[in-house]
Design brief:
Two copies of one chain form a homodimer. Chain A is 56% helix and 16% strand. By secondary structure, the first copy, chain A, is of the alpha+beta class. The mean pLDDT of chain A is 92. Chains A and B meet through helix 1, helix 2 and helix 5 of A and helix 1, helix 2 and helix 5 of B. The structure holds a DNA duplex.
DNA sequence: TTGACATACCTAGAATAACGAGGTATAATA
DNA sequence: TATTATACCTCGTTATTCTAGGTATGTCAA
């Protein structure tokens, strides 16, 4: 990660879901997209992503299918209805968390 | 934690330093202050705080001294010059990180 | 005065999450 | 043909937090 890896903890799953909320992606493509969207701040490793995708699929938050993309079969992941609901909840938690952090950091600052 | 514990990872140390940046605190007091400042979002456990304080002291980011506070000897922690510099850096990293998250979450949203 | 509760500091072990480093295979390109 | 990029995967290490305990003191009500 470009940022301290500790920060990533907990938000990785949400970030993956957020990317998939737009349209289906396959793993490798997802990493590149995440990197782009974050202006090179997030450089998620494959050793991080694939276990996350497998867990998401296991929990039925995403569904995978083998599809031919530009002449090659790839495992494409799509978000499910359940996944969309989970994402909405995680976004809410993230907002609560980040606001609380900013509140502590800016205490006393006018 | 009131929020998912995963989110805390990485920011706990920064939050402790941020509290100490205002004035010296002893451990127990610090937990209560953090909880107040965050509107009950952060409920840090003692098993989390004390190891953090010990590590911070070991790295010379804080300094401790036994002081009598309201008729009782307590271990009071104060931020050092080095600690202030570390806090400034961590704040910067936090800003970079949270902005990147928000950028990914709000992609395509007008 | 005695028992319960809050205060106050601490540690060991379990759980979780991300990473590094490796493996395997195919396609493109020089 | 050799190298690089693509593409998916797993295992073991490391880092961080929590749970659950231990110890001790002060306060307050029954």
């Amino acid at each position: 990660m470009a940022v301290d890896k500790g920060y990533m903890s907990g938000s990785s799953t949400m970030l993956v879901l957020a990317i998939l909320a737009e349209k289906p992606y396959y793993g490798y493509e997802l990493i590149k997209t995440l990197k782009q969207r974050s202006n090179d701040t997030f450089d998620m490793k494959e050793g991080t992503l694939y276990p996350i995708l497998h867990k998401l699929e296991n929990d039925a938050l995403v569904a995978s299918s083998n599809q031919e993309v530009s002449g090659r079969v790839r495992k494409v992941y799509a978000i499910t209805e359940k996944g969309s609901r989970a994402l909405a909840k995680e976004k809410q938690e993230w907002n609560e968390f980040s606001m609380a952090v900013n509140q502590v950091l800016t205490f006393g600052v006018v």
